[in-house]
């Protein structure tokens, strides 16, 4: 049984469950029994993953270890995290919980390799950007893809988008409210599409998925949350 460490963010975790349900139903599910049993732990009281990596807050790791152990006691045999940034500690978490984890960043790298991506921009938290967490996975699973991150100024746009995806701006009218999170992400995408030679943009923060999808004829777009949902559905075949 799969255990999901969520609450990172809350809306993104809810969106993950929606994606999983939708994918099973589109694959032919028409009864509740056609969907897998899962336990979701909304780890809202664990410290911020990005703030920790930025050196601005306490570590989230011990909280996640304790949650993972509790999920194991409840019958989970595999875990995943609805957060790219938390993958900073995925090896330590797997070791201390004695459970395997689905690695969202590894799976995004595999998807990129399948798509033949040459140069990908990662929109992500400042903490993930600081530690360049995507490099290790891409070196292993998509070595032909160059990974790049926003510069300091543009990263501020990404951070504003992520923060606003968690607050009331998410419900604003995108057409009239410049602070709508999708507008910040669109601004980032437009800038790099028009000024660089990238051929792909990765939504490397699960909060992005809840408010933004890029529609572009110029570059590909990989939504890390959607990739995670695909992997879960493929691993837990119910029909």
Please summarize what this structure is:
It holds the Pfam family Asp_Glu_race. The protein is built from eleven helices and eight strands.
Question: What does it look like?
Answer:
The protein is an alpha/beta fold. It has 2 domains: about 1-100 and about 225-235, 3-Layer(aba) Sandwich (Rossmann fold), CATH 3.40.50; about 105-225, Rossmann fold. It has helices at about 10-25, 50-55, 60-75, 90-95, 105-115, 125-130, 135-140, 150-165, 180-195, 205-210, 225-235; strands at about 1-5, 40, 80, 100, 120-125, 145-150, 200-205, 220-225. The strands form 2 sheets. Strands 2-1-3-4 form a 4-stranded parallel sheet, sandwiched between helices. Helix 1 (about 10-25) links the parallel strand 1 and strand 2. Helix 5 (about 105-115) packs across helix 7 (about 135-140) and helix 5 crosses helix 11 (about 225-235). The radius of gyration is 17 Å and the shape is globular. The two termini are about 15 Å apart. The mean pLDDT is about 95.
Q: What is the element layout, followed by pairings?
A:
Elements: E1 2-6, H1 10-26, E2 38-42, H2 49-53, H3 61-73, E3 78-81, H4 90-97, E4 101-102, H5 104-115, E5 119-123, H6 126-131, H7 134-141, E6 146-148, H8 152-165, H9 181-195, E7 200-203, H10 206-209, E8 220-223, H11 224-235
Parallel strand pairs: 1-2, 1-3, 3-4, 5-6, 5-7, 7-8
Helix pairs in contact: 1-11, 3-4, 5-7, 5-11, 8-9
Over the alpha carbons, how many angstroms does the gyration radius reach?
A: 17 Å
Strand elements, count: 8
Whole-number mean pLDDT: 97
- CATH level 3 topology of the largest domain: Rossmann fold
Architecture of the largest domain, according to CATH? Answer: 3-Layer(aba) Sandwich
- Sheet with most strands: strand arrangement: 2-1-3-4
How many domain modules? 2
Strand content: 5-15%
Helix and strand pattern: EHEHHEHEHEHHEHHEHEH
Number of helical stretches of at least 4 residues: 11
Characterize the biggest β-sheet. Answer: 4 strands, parallel
Protein name: Aspartate racemase
InterPro entries: Asp/Glu/hydantoin_racemase, Asp/Glu_race, Asp_race
Pfam family, one: Asp_Glu_race
Organism: Bacteroides helcogenes (strain ATCC 35417 / DSM 20613 / JCM 6297 / CCUG 15421 / P 36-108)
